[in-house]
Amino acid sequence: MTTVASFSSIPFLVLSDFLCRKFGYVQCIAFGLICYSIRCLGYSLIKNYYWCFPFEVIEGITTGLLVASAIIYGSKLSQQSNLGTLQGILATFHYGFGKSAGSLLGGFLMGRLGGRVAFRIFSGGSFIFAFAYYLIFKLVFQPRIERAEKRKRDVSNMQVEIIPKEDLSIAGPESSKGSKGKTELYPITSTPIKNSSSYPSNKIENENERESNLNA
């Protein structure tokens, strides 16, 4: 059975990138979880172990397509510097924690409830997780992605107006001495620009006037 499952995974591993771009990463992951549900339900219904072979063929989708889609989708969401870390986390949760917890829970359910009931429980759980994953993506994450893409399109399509250099300045209030009709140009600013040479003398005159008023 392992040989059948391994050979059935090869086409989906080869075509995983094409299928993800064709149907979407989330759709492929949800479809892989549904195929897990079909496999577990089929195992709970068969009475002859030879009927395991058709359901082992589905492992090409549950392993080849599902895991590959998760890895590719993770690489699209993460930065290039964090790609190795993300793949390590995915492998740890799937092959480490997931299979260990599944084996422990599956053995407990088989011992208490029997193999058929245990497979049906896993089948229902896989279907519920597939539906919940797809629903959360459609209702929560996809609108955010669409709004972000819309903002990017609006920014890229925004018309940029080039202002000539001479329009960025205005004529000064008075022309400088000896300029003979020429006007000084000052940069546009929200606050008036004070003449640095006359400002200290004006400040001294104002202080002297204030002192004379106080003495009077």
Q: How is this structure best described in words?
A:
Residues 170-216 are annotated as: Disordered. The protein has 216 residues and is mainly alpha-helical. It has two domains: 2-156, Growth Hormone, Chain: A (Up-down Bundle); 167-215, no CATH class. It has seven helices and two strands; from the N terminus they run H-H-H-H-H-H-E-E-H. 16% of the residues are buried. Mean pLDDT is 76; it is low at 170-199.
Summarize it.
Helix content is 73%, strand content 3%.
The CATH homologous superfamily of the largest domain: MFS general substrate transporter like domains
Biggest sheet character: 2 strands, antiparallel
Shape: elongated
Which blocks of ≥5 consecutive residues have pLDDT under 50?
Answer: 170-199
Mean pLDDT across residues: 76
As a whole number of angstroms, the C-alpha radius of gyration is 36 Å
CATH topology of the largest domain: Growth Hormone, Chain: A
Q: What is the CATH-assigned architecture of the largest domain?
A: Up-down Bundle
Estimate the helix proportion, in percent. over 70%
Strand order of the largest sheet: 1-2
List SSEs in N-to-C order: HHHHHHEEH
Count of helix runs: 7
| Proportion of strand residues | under 5%
The chain-level structural class is: mainly alpha
Number of domains: 2
In the CATH scheme, the class of the largest domain would be: Mainly Alpha
By DSSP, the count of extended strands is: 2
C-alpha end-to-end distance: 112 Å
Main location: membrane
InterPro entries: MFS_assoc_dom, MFS_dom, MFS_MFSD6, MFS_trans_sf
Keywords: Membrane, Transmembrane, Transmembrane helix
GO cellular component, one term: membrane
